Each structure stands twice: as C-alpha cells, then as structure tokens.
Amino acid sequence: MVGLSGPALLPDEAAFLARVRPVGIILFGRNVTTAEAVTALVRDARDACNPAFVLMDQEGGRVQRLRPPLAQRMPAAAAIGAVYAKNPEAGERAAYLAGRLIAADLAPYGINMPCLPVADVPVPGGHDVIGDRAYADDPAAVARLAGAAIAGVLAGGAIPVMKHCPGHGRAMVDSHFDLPRVTADRAALETDFAPFRALSACPAAMTAHLLYEAIDGARPGTLSPVVTALIREEIGFDGLLMTDDISMEALSGGVADRGVAALEAGVDVVLHCNGDFDEMRALGEALPPITAAADARVARALAARSAPTVHDVDGLRAEFAACLNAP
Description:
Elements: E1 2-3, H1 11-20, E2 24-27, H2 35-49, E3 53-56, E4 58-60, E5 63-64, H3 77-86, H4 88-106, E6 113-114, H5 139-155, E7 162-165, E8 181-182, H6 186-198, E9 204-207, E10 211-212, H7 225-234, E11 240-242, H8 255-265, H9 277-286, H10 292-304, H11 313-324
Parallel strand pairs: 1-2, 2-3, 3-6, 7-9, 8-10, 9-11
Antiparallel strand pairs: 4-5
C-alpha cells in the first residue's frame, strides 16, 4: 500500500501503480484540496491499478485528513469515551455513529478503508502520540467503544482498520521519530492485548512499531515473527495485517529492507505513506507479490462490509450530536 505525493496523480506515479499494482493507496492532507480534486485523484489511481483499498486516517480529532467543508468535523475518541463514562449507552451509540458517519463522509470520494479505531490503552506518562486518540484507559471500555466503531464503519460499507496491534499505549516516545521500548512484563501487557483479543474478528489491523522487551527484545513488533505469532495465535487475529507506515523512523535500515523484514515476520501487507517516489520504487523492486494467504484475507476484508444502503445521514448526524450531549 502506497501514498501519493500530491493532489494530482503524476505520470511517474501512474506508471508505477500500473506496474506494481499495490493492493491499496493511502491519502493524506497533502492530497486534499477540493472535493473534485480528491475524487479525480482516487479515480485516476483506480484507473491505474484498481486497488482493493483506498485508505485514509480519519479517526476524528487531530487525526482527520478530510475536514469541513469536505467532511464533517468529528471529535477525538477520548471525547466519545467521556460520554461513555457518564452514560454508557449514549457513548457506545456515539462510537457506532462516528464510524458510520465517517464511512458516509468518505464514500463519495471512493475511499473505502478509514484507518480506525484506535484500540490502544494508554498508560500514565505515555507519549501523547496516542493521547486523546484513545477512547479510555480501561481496556473493557476501549473494547466496547472500538467494537462499536468497527460495527459502524462496516455498516457504512467500508472496512475498518484497528490500530496499533498488539498495543501502542505504553510508548514513551513518538514512533514517527524514535523507537519506543516497552519494558512491561507479560502480565502487564495483557492489559494492552485485551481490546485486540476482544476485537479479533475485525477485518484488518495495523501493527505497532514498538519493541516489547518481554516478547522480543531484539526486533520491533512490525519486524518480529514472535510478535506476529502472538497476534495470530494468542490474540487470535486472522484478518489482514498491515504495517504501520514503514517509513517511520522507529525502524532502522533502508525502507526496502524494512519492508522485506516485515513480510518475513508474517505481516500481510507493507504500508508506505510518505509519497517519496524513490522509496516507493525501491519497495516495488524488493517486495514479492502478495501471498495466497494474504490475498484471501483481502477478499475476506472486502466481504465483511455491508452492502451500500441509503440512510438518513442527516438524521444520523442529529442522533450523534444528541449522544455527545447526553446527560
């Protein structure tokens, strides 16, 4: 899965997509200008390689790539968690409606894979790279709310991606720039794993670039076959497993080497986000075709979503506002 450099597909990018045929493309703020331009960019990418997935980080709060007037402004997950803390029924419904409305906002642009929910459980003193992106610091509440958001996204005809498996809440540094080292023992890590175990039926998940000393003291989760085995066997996740952005500086070595190591560790798909064409080309040359097992998980992810239906979206927005303001 690859990012693109700007608001229009460049000829070199179109040729690359046609040759490599990535399973997905991901859009960021740099790709967003007008509604017409976003629609054209997605259309041109589909014409070039017909990707199964068009991704976008659209959690709400500070991680929302489409904003008004192109999409509704959505609250951060922590705001929904605050509603849940005082009114669990309203909070859970708000989480569902947020997922449903985000899917509705993205659908007109051809974006079918919003990268949410965050199922991480933050700990005191953790870096705010997660912060208010998390629903709560209680794993049971996180599981309920993230599960509701997954259901909402699926009901909206899109495919959710839960993040960041097996847990990013203990990071003390930002994995965009440094490698977080988690020193907690296995018993403590069960708190982090719990939401992902409860949500193991989610169609897709994203790895965490964290080094868990109690699991694999030598390799970050994304590059560790031991961590992948834990995700598959102990957590029980058998959906499409993608890396977090392989260009993030938590990982060392060349980008192509990182991608190869991730696949060798058992991840299904490598995600490269920054739109750097030289890095994309290096990955395209280094990575093998998708495996049969990963291709089957792609098909299952696509089949998990509901068929598109007509909904009273304005009515859902009004209900969502009411849930956020519930006593």
